[in-house]
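FAQ: What does a ligand-bound record look like?

Like this one, built around zinc ion:
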Amino acid sequence: MNASPPPALACSVRNCAKPLTRAEKTWYCESGHTFDIARSGYLNLIQPQDRRSLNAGDGRETVAARRALLDSGFGTALRAALLETIDSLALAPALQAVDLGCGEGYFLAELCAQTGFQGCGIDLSAHAVESAARRFPQHLWIAANADRRLPLLDSAWDLVLSIDGRRPRDEIARVLRPDGLLLVAIPAANDLIELRGAVLAEVLLTDQVAKAEAALAPHFQLRARRTVQQTRELDRVGLAQLAAATYRCARRREMQALASLEQLTVTTAHEVLVFGKSVPGLQD
Ligand SMILES: [Zn+2]
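The answer part, i.e. the structure of the complex:
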């Protein structure tokens, strides 16, 4: 543990939301609610009512497939684009960054390693945060349902990341400082275009940027945007990992089409978007 301020977490017991404090292997609030740190190192803030949809979030195979893809270099272009974007924002080095839908933690850990940010990753999948906690123990990893109330204190976070994840607008607005930023990565129109053409009989995606902007208004305004693209040759194993990691090709016909491919050039493409909070009265 370093001397940075502790992460601004809130109790996830319904209607509590008091600040959480850490004591050894437990986090607790002043109302006496306690949360254990798992042996693998992640903090479990999932409430019993969120457990009903078990297995909530990504399963073990999906997490393993995504990790294998990223380890093979699949995310390097997006990682570079995220870092360039962060560099261009000239942020303070010690800020608190939270990644919603952090998965196995690759992007948050990479960004924190390059910037010195204090990282906190949240994912509904205990498999994902367990994998993240084992690999990147220097950061805080939390199993929680980010679709409900985020287990984070009000106006306490400098940067919220959503990389191919969900974007609960009102909750993000609540936890961000007034000058905080929301960094979003979403699939660009030609993301996985070859895979979709060969297996899924789809072509271009519709414009996700306009949708994201509309969904985040009026709390957020788009401040910057860049597009990043990477093309890789995937063999059978890589294609199977890609399908598993992205929930594609799950239908029988699609699985057969995928299995018939020896290899495929695959484009991954993202829009990287920076949103700031709208200032009331300053809109056009
Ligand atoms: Zn509590």
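Follow-up question: can I read anything off the structure? Yes, for example: The pocket of zinc ion is lined by residues 11, 13, 16, 18, 29, 31, 33 (CB under 6 Å).
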